[in-house]
Amino acid sequence: MAVAIRLTRRGTKKRPYYHIIVADSRNARDSGNILDTVGKYDPMQPKDSGKRVTLLEDKIKDWMAKGARPSDRVYKFLANAGMVAKKAIPVQTKQHLQSEKTLMRIKDKQEKLAKIAEEKAAAEAAAQPEPVVEEVVEEVAPEIAAEESAPVVEETPAVEEPAPEVAPEVAAEEPAPEVAEEAPAEAPAEEVAVAPAE
User: Fold this and answer.
1) What is the C-alpha to C-alpha distance for residues 42 and 53, in angstroms, rounded to an integer?
2) Residue 20 and residue 39: Cα distance in Å, rounded?
3) Beta strand 3-12 with 69-70: parallel, antiparallel or unpaired?
4) Closest-CA residue to 68 (of 19, 20, 8, 3)
5) Which of 4, 58, 54, 56 is nearest to 31 (CA)?
6) Domains in the chain with CATH codes
7) Contact at 8 Å (CB) between 36 and 21?
8) What does pTM read for this prediction?
9) Residue among 99, 119, 122 at smallest CA distance from 111
10) In what order do the strands lie in the sheet with 34-41?
């Protein structure tokens, strides 16, 4: 009989809880045919919590001395507890990488997206109207040139001098200037009625 130290699931749906048991390796995981319970594992606890993995070290050492072999997950628990030496990490093969066919599909998709982006940018550039600024500059340029060639005369603000004050009595005595009436330059000639000859 091959004896294994492994996990068996307990708990409820979406709330797993595992017991570390010693059982025949040929039995199903949750069959109930266990020889001994040697610890507990609660994945719902934080990783740094001491309640996450609980091991009964004396029982585990006894069963390992009798030939029980831990599963991969239990072996990691025992290695973290310092009961066994840690396994060397095996060299990774290329199986974890994407296949050449998948890489080619990704590359083709990226090229297509880049081409579509270039075409869209070119279409937007062609759809934009030409700038009108150049035409306005050409029309305004002669006016600016004429203004630049004309001499610049700085206008100084005129200073108004206050008018001399005249006493109201003096102003009333002065006669208003007379405006001479102009005679018409030429008087219209009188029309002489000519009697018809008999």
Assistant:
1) 7
2) 5
3) parallel
4) 3
5) 4
6) 3-81 (3.30.1320.10)
7) yes
8) 0.45
9) 119
10) 53-55, 34-41, 15-24, 3-12, 69-70
Q: Give the separation between CA 154 and CA 36, rounded to whole angstroms.
A: 111
Pull the structure tokens for residue 101. Answer: 């066919």
Residue located via tokens 């749906």: 13
Q: Using H for helix, E for strand and C for coil, what is the string for 93-136? A: CHHHCCCHHHHHHHHHHHHHHHHHHHHHHHHHHHHCCCCCHHHH
- CA 15/CA 105 separation, integer angstroms: 40
User: How many CA atoms lie less than 13 Å away from 48 in the CB half-sphere?
Assistant: 0
DSSP 139-181: HHHHHHHHHHHSPP-PPPPPPPPPPPP--HHHHHHSPPPPPPP
Note the pLDDT of residue 62: 93
Q: pLDDT of the chain along its 198 residues, tens only? A: 689 999 999 889 999 999 999 998 888 877 778 899 999 999 999 988 888 999 999 999 999 999 999 998 999 999 998 888 888 766 667 777 788 899 999 999 999 999 999 999 988 888 877 665 555 555 555 555 555 555 555 555 555 666 556 555 544 555 555 555 555 555 455 555 555 555
CA-to-CA distance for 79 and 68, rounded, in angstroms?
A: 16
- CA distance linking residue 19 with residue 23, whole number of Å: 12
